[in-house]
Amino acid sequence: MADAARRLTALAEEVLGAPLPVRVRAWDGSEAGPPGAPTLVLRRSRALRRMLWKPGELGLARGWVAGDIDIEGDLYQALDLLAELVWERPGGGSRESRPRALWGVVRDPARRSTVRRLLALAGPGLPPAPPPEEVGARRGPLHTLRRDKAAISHHYDVGNDFYQLVLGPSMVYSCAYWDTAPAGPGTAPGGGTEGLGSLEEAQRAKLDLVCRKLALAPGQRLLDVGCGWGSMALHAAREYGVRAVGITLSEEQAGYARKRVAEAGLSELVEIRSQDYRQVADGPFDAISSIGMAEHVGSVQYAEYAGHLYRLLAPGGRLLNHQIARRPEPDETAYHVDEFIDRYVFPDGELAPLGRTVSQLEQAGFEIRDVEAIREHYGLTLRHWVANLEANWVAAVRATSPGRARVWRLYMAASALAFEHNRIGVNQVLAVRTPRSGTSGLPLRARDWRG
């Protein structure tokens, strides 16, 4: 009799000491678990082998990317429930000391009997090969020019058509900015909260907020670090008359952005370069925007990043640093990048606590004048992107690959929950290269950006 789901559920509950919160459908067609709950679908027995050979998030993610594992029902609810089993457990200890619950049993010598039964259920065979889209071997020290370019290419050079489907017409790949606060997590997409504007409107509002914080004016020079597909540089030139230089390490982004600039008739005002921020040497600039780029810099390189941007600014110039932040760890030496994110999404990327970012900017010479936390806005943004991907699934798979589309759906949905549950945040830090005279150029009243 087909009973793999029942046996797996029983083993899981033996480990947890509580009922499994999701329903399970196994490769033999059997089902077990609470009716009406999201269903974890294990399409092949090798899905279990992946999780046994690589306990924790990476084994589960590899099964997802390969199509061995799927979710039926509310994806966000399912990820919330699974997070308690795989990624985190409430209560005590550092991230490293928390039990890994169901999959942590594999490494517990006291649970050898359970391990043997899980192995018998998974069937014979060596650990399955990782599915495509995983980052290959990385050579050399972290954050050299060559290694950073390869890391950026892995994430961004996956096809502009794919990103158009996910991001929508704005082609902005960072947190949008809404005027109306939603009633709760996930209430905006698909009809959403009354009065909440579209994603395109919210992205335009974010770009304009950055321009206002920088107090941009006609004739000024703006450097947009990590310019993406050119949206910030285009907005600043078109709406504020600045001369903008956008830099990116992604060749596909650069080509797309140059085409947009030409089509907008702004070639005299906007220059797009394939260039690392460390190679920019034609300052001074009146303002610098860095939106969603500093996450790629890395802790070993951040002091150089902050110092180089400081030197590129004219005295009195402003920097707007828009950056995702993680919560501080009780023991900072225990921090590590999530394996799934590092292997499949943002190789070599790192998140830092807000306090560390502010301190390093200050150590570079900047005066910090404003910090705005916009965490809830990123949860909304990500849910919109997931909705776009799901609505255009067939075209998205055609534009890249089934594995890549599955990677993006998982990482964006899980990231939305991380923002909504305050596990990570995002902040806009306004910093000034204040001259020796002490005149910052900002008004006495906070957030009257132009003075």
TrEMBL record:
Residues 162-435 form the Polyketide synthase-like methyltransferase domain. This is Class I SAM-dependent methyltransferase. The lineage of its organism: Bacteria, Bacillati, Actinomycetota, Actinomycetes, Kitasatosporales. It comes from the Bacteria. GO terms for molecular function: methyltransferase activity. PANTHER family: CYCLOPROPANE-FATTY-ACYL-PHOSPHOLIPID SYNTHASE. Pfam families: CMAS (PF02353). GO terms for biological process: lipid biosynthetic process; methylation. Keywords: Lipid metabolism, Methyltransferase, S-adenosyl-L-methionine, Transferase. Gene3D superfamilies: Vaccinia Virus protein VP39 (3.40.50.150). It comes from Streptomyces palmae. InterPro entries: CFA/CMAS (IPR050723), CMAS (IPR003333), MeTfrase_dom (IPR020803), SAM-dependent_MTases_sf (IPR029063). Belongs to the CFA/CMAS family.
